[in-house]
Amino acid sequence: MTRQESNQSVGNFRARIEQPSFPCVGAKSALAQRNLGFILAADLRSSEDDAAIVLRLQEFAAVAAADAVFVSRVVLFESTPRLDEFQFEQALWSRLQAFHALDRSQHGWDPAVSSDPGSPHFSMSLGGRGFYVIGLHPGASRASRRFRCAAMVFNLHSQFETLRSEGRYDKLREAITQRDIAYSGSRNPMLAAHGLDSEARQYGGRQVEGAWRCPFSAQADGAADDP
Question: Which of 91, 200, 209, 216 has CA 20 to 30 A from 100's CA?
Fold first, then answer.
């Protein structure tokens, strides 16, 4: 992976968000406010970059204000071959499990969210902060989840709570939903209202079946119970 290739991947991601029709207005706001940071890695299926990725996400968790909104980090796995949705989902959760194994020695689970991936209050936790994770890859069935290389977007859970407390969340969510329908051609069947189903079902982007069980297990000491 050359510097030129890395710069091109970041440029491609920025250009994708800047497309007028791109549905996520939150990502547009983060980019416009220069709050969208990038972490470059190789193969989503490999552990070679795990330590560096976790360190960068822990640093982000430590400095992001509790009331910050439209702030995210994007991990671009530039050397990942094209995967189908099942393969991508498996690789994504394998990486999150590995990230957790590295993080748990230094940080407990964010007490504001559940560590149980079956809970409607679950969020991934790194650096003591909850994150809502969005997986993107070339083989995604939904257009809004498609990107030239595999990627994981880490959005702070606290920003959704801030937006909700300010009365802005529902309006923003509806705007993104309607834009996504226009962009992808249909309503996302995996998009559940907050608190009704586990967000873990949405991370990989695949339309999972009702009996789907998340292949992730939190092992951190003192992991939080459901709020």
Answer: 209
Sign of CA dihedral 115, 144, 43, 213: positive
Is the per-residue pLDDT at 193 higher than 70? no
Q: Determine the 3-state secondary structure of 131 from DSSP.
A: strand
Taking Cα atoms as reference points, which of 152, 148, 174, 147 lies closest to residue 163?
174
Query: For 118-136, what is each residue's pLDDT tens digit?
Result: 999 999 999 999 999 999 9
Q: Please, how many CA atoms are within 13 Å of residue 59, restricted to the half-sphere of its CB?
A: 10
| CA-to-CA separations, 71 to 33, 91, 117, in angstroms, rounded | 9, 25, 23
How far apart, in whole angstroms, are the C-alpha atoms of residue 132 and residue 114?
A: 12
**pLDDT score of 71 more than 90:** yes
User: Which amino acid is it at 153?
Assistant: V
From 24, 22, 58, 26, select the one nearest 39 (Cα to Cα): 58
Q: How far from the centroid of its chain's Cα atoms is residue 93's Cα?
A: 11
What is the pTM for the complete model shown? Answer: 0.90
State how beta strands 129-136 and 124-126 pair.
antiparallel
Residue (of 158, 111, 107) closest to 132 by Cα position: 158
Higher pLDDT pick, 1 / 92: 92
With contact defined as beta carbons under 8 Å apart, do 41 and 76 qualify? yes
